[in-house]
Write a structure and sequence with these properties.
2 domains, six-stranded parallel sheet, CoA-Trfase_fam_III, alpha/beta, transferase, Rossmann fold, three-stranded antiparallel sheet, CoA-Trfase_III_dom_1_sf
């Protein structure tokens, strides 16, 4: 393995999404990530399909698309944590690791002798990261959580979707498991910061990451809008709550996204739609005025953009650097010339299908480039290899 973390080994006891997402980031950065899975079943997401990866003969395999999205670069070791032998094996592996990732309910691994205090006693410099729905303390610490419910509980669905009085109005979740993904990102940041501190002090760390905390944290401008105004933000569809014009607009043959971010871009937009006078209109001359007078502004822009085709508007707006774009389907994303140029889609060798598609890390490092040479593992694929490599005999 290559990359800036090629000297780090991670024991990944997590499953589903948030923990595995963090593990995949660490693996992409070069860490040796050893994923512990239940014999015969594995990570819950292995069965979350269809779709399943087609095997070399075209028949569906047991490798779900969901699992394949979050487990690249890892080695799978099948161990039964419910048995004393399995627990001892995991303890033995932990002694060779720098990081432990886990997302069991609070207190579960301590009952197996695999909690932070247990492992710290034999490896004081271990960085141990626990990912849960609600954290290690508080009235909900023992409750289970999933991305969907945290999107609801954490306020995200209150600001996502159309207004209740608009067609299709009502609360909406985000189209990807964004809380899981962001939780995995924050977990990774916590682990990396602990590793950086360990390099200076020699001390390990316990990282406590809660999905609800993460969701509250990334309410970002919507939270601050409320805290400084006292007004609860509501759902506004595609319209930005603070910057305008930013919305979806219908063209003659499709839809266009405008993301005008400052007064200079707005002036250029006005020129492109042949309404240059709007840039000096006191109702629209500044962003604050545009937000206050949004209904009038949107009506003008909508009427103008209906007069021509999507490709025409994209060309005109891009020519004067007004941020805009089409609404691509996912197949269109992977056909985009910029996405292709950046090689975001790779195909890695896989023992079941020959190759497996992977959407790779967006991180680009010049001096320690990332390598993507290990596909998501089959269940228990590396059990013998890892135990032999670490000198661990038996399960």
């Amino acid at each position: 393995m290559t990359g800036p973390l090629s000297h780090i080994r991670v024991l990944d006891l997590s499953r589903i999404m948030a923990g595995p997402w963090s593990g995949q980031i660490l693996a992409d950065l070069g860490a040796d990530v050893i994923k512990i899975e239940r014999p015969g079943a594995g990570d819950d997401t292995r069965s979350w399909g269809p779709p399943f990866l087609p095997a070399s003969d075209g028949a569906p395999s047991k490798e779900s698309g969901y699992f394949l999205a979050v487990n690249r670069g890892k080695r799978s070791v099948a161990v039964d944590l419910a048995t004393p032998e399995g627990q001892e094996t995991v303890r033995a592996i932990a002694l060779h690791c720098d990081v432990v990732l886990e997302n069991f309910k609070a207190g579960t691994l301590a009952r197996y002798g695999l909690g932070y205090e247990d492992l710290k006693a034999v490896k004081p410099d271990l960085v141990y990261c626990s990912i849960t729905g609600f954290g290690q303390d508080g009235p909900k610490a023992g409750h289970a959580a999933y991305d969907f419910m945290i999107q609801a509980m954490g306020g995200l669905m209150s600001v996502t979707g159309e207004r209740d009085d608009a067609p299709g109005g009502g609360p909406q979740k985000v189209g990807v498991p964004i809380v899981d993904i962001m939780t995995g990102m924050y977990a990774t940041i916590g682990v990396l910061s602990a590793l950086a501190r360990r390099a200076e002090t020699g001390e390990g760390e316990y990282v406590d990451i809660a999905m609800l905390d993460v969701q509250v944290a990334f309410l970002a401008n919507q939270a601050m809008n409320y805290l400084v105004s006292g007004n609860a933000p509501g759902r506004s569809g595609n319209r930005h709550p603070n910057i305008q014009p930013q919305d979806v607009f219908r063209c003659r043959d499709g839809h266009l996204v405008l993301a005008v971010g400052n007064d200079g871009q707005f002036r250029k937009l006005c020129e492109v739609i042949a309404r240059a006078e709007l840039a000096d209109d006191e109702r629209f001359a500044t962003n604050a005025q545009r937000v206050r007078n949004l209904p009038e502004l949107l009506a003008i822009i909508r009427e103008a953009l209906l007069a021509d085709d999507l490709a025409v508007w994209l060309a005109r707006l891009e020519a004067v650097a007004v941020p805009c774009g089409p609404i691509n389907t996912i197949p269109m994303v992977f056909d985009d010339e910029q996405v292709k140029h950046r090689a975001m889609l790779r195909h890695l060798p896989h023992p079941v299908s020959g190759t497996v598609p992977q959407v790779v890390s967006p991180i680009r490092l010049r001096n320690a480039p990332l390598a993507f040479d290990r596909a998501p593992p089959t269940l228990g694929q590396h059990t013998d290899e890892v135990l032999r490599e670490l000198g661990i005999v038996g399960l």
